[in-house]
Design a protein that fits this description.
Helix content is 36%, strand content 23%. By secondary structure, the chain is an alpha+beta fold. Strand 5 and strand 6 (76-77) form a beta hairpin. Helix 2 (121-140) crosses helix 3 (146-160) and helix 6 (232-252) packs antiparallel against helix 7 (255-274). Bound molecules: (3R)-3-hydroxy-3-methyl-5-(phosphonooxy)pentanoic acid.
Length: 356
């Protein structure tokens, strides 16, 4: 198919998608080539932490080879994000050559406060990639099945930010090649809906904001440090094992195995940071204080509450819906005091992106 739009068919338009963040249970940490993961990862899709992106396109008055784009974040022109997305669109030209035929404006906003210490790259890159796939469909017609449309959006999202490729799907997603499961790929994520027990479908994730500051070491620097981490080979084996156990636990509804893997993965991720050269630490004293509290509460109540962390100090507290009332009062009384400004966000597993 010729992916340049004939002059007479060019028109102006606007496409918008809202897309959620996701929380990895098995972690992607370490990459090679163009955003290929060193190991597969499995995530739950969140509901409340979302980015909405509105992509406006107008045919260029005079065609050039450059990307013409301006990005507004929360209604303010944002030169840093503009440059980032211009580069991203330029990288996508071999897939979407029509991107050089338009002047673009992107308006993007998050449902969560900007300085909440929540990474917005997954929600924002997945929202944008869905806008681009919808734009392609607008000009070239519906040539893909829904499954292939999502797979393509996931592929495109991955090129912007690895973990973004998992945000395309409702409930849960798997990204990365798993030996023995043919359909899996490093290029895109796949939906796990249909392989997830009901207990996980309305699982809660309370995001406990230990710090709202931007993290001191970016994910891309962290991934790169895995190249020379002497524990990396053992880590990649561990991830393979955890993924297989987790897939089974998700299917069977085994929340204890799920929780055990979630916590081991989070601590392994942070251990890898501490054993990088140079080493770095993203957990803070309050992260550890919260982890201790969670463990004590679990021991006392026998409730299934488990923690995980992203590449930052904030704690994600995972628990099933049937204990929401007691866990929320525990959060308010015992955990919120360790959060910056006492703040935490109540989120839960969600239905995935939506065109708006
Ligand atoms: O997608 P990136 O490059 O921001 O990396 C995400 C890394 C972790 O959040 C730590 C783990 C993951 O799988 O989401």
């Amino acid at each position: 198919m010729d992916l340049i739009i004939p002059q007479q068919e060019l028109d102006a338009g606007e496409i918008a998608w809202r897309s959620p963040a996701n929380i990895a249970i098995t972690k992607y940490w370490g990459k090679f080539a163009d955003q290929q993961p060193r190991n597969a990862s499995i995530s739950l899709t969140l509901n409340n932490a979302t980015t909405t992106s509105v992509l406006t396109f107008t045919p260029k008055a005079v065609e050039t080879d450059e990307i013409s784009l301006q990005l507004f974040f929360e209604e303010q022109a944002n030169p840093k994000f503009t440059e980032k997305v211009q580069k991203y669109f330029a990288k996508l030209l071999p897939i979407f050559p029509f991107l050089k035929q338009f002047d673009f404006t992107v308006h993007t906003k998050n449902s969560f406060p900007h300085s909440a210490g929540i990474a917005s790259s997954a929600s924002s890159m997945s929202a944008l990639s869905l806008c681009l796939c919808s734009m392609e469909e607008h000009f070239f017609g519906k040539t893909l099945s829904d499954f292939d449309f999502d797979k393509k959006a996931s592929y495109i999202a991955r090129l912007g930010s690895g973990s973004a490729c998992r945000s395309i799907y409702p409930i849960a997603a798997l990204w990365g090649k798993i030996d023995g499961i043919d359909i899996t790929s490093n290029d895109f994520a796949l939906p796990l809906e249909g392989h997830v027990h009901p207990v996980f479908m309305d699982m809660h994730d309370a995001i406990l904001m230990v710090s709202k500051a931007e993290k001191s070491v970016s994910s891309s620097v962290g991934h790169a440090l895995m190249d020379n981490n002497e524990y990396a080979p053992a880590r990649f084996e561990q991830a393979q094992k955890h993924n297989l156990f987790l897939l089974k636990a998700l299917e069977e509804g085994d929340i204890k195995i799920f929780g055990n893997i979630a916590e081991r993965e989070a601590l392994s991720l942070h251990a890898l940071m501490m054993t990088s050269e140079p080493p770095f630490l993203l957990m803070q004293p309050n992260s550890l204080a919260i982890i201790e509290k969670i463990r004590a509460y679990r021991k006392d109540t026998q409730h299934d509450i488990y923690f995980t962390l992203d590449a930052g100090p904030n704690i994600h507290l995972l628990y099933p819906d049937d204990i929401v009332t007691s866990v929320e009062s525990f959060i308010k009384s015992d955990l919120a005091p360790f959060c910056e400004g006492g703040e935490w966000l109540a989120d839960y597993v969600g239905e995935g992106p939506e065109q708006v």
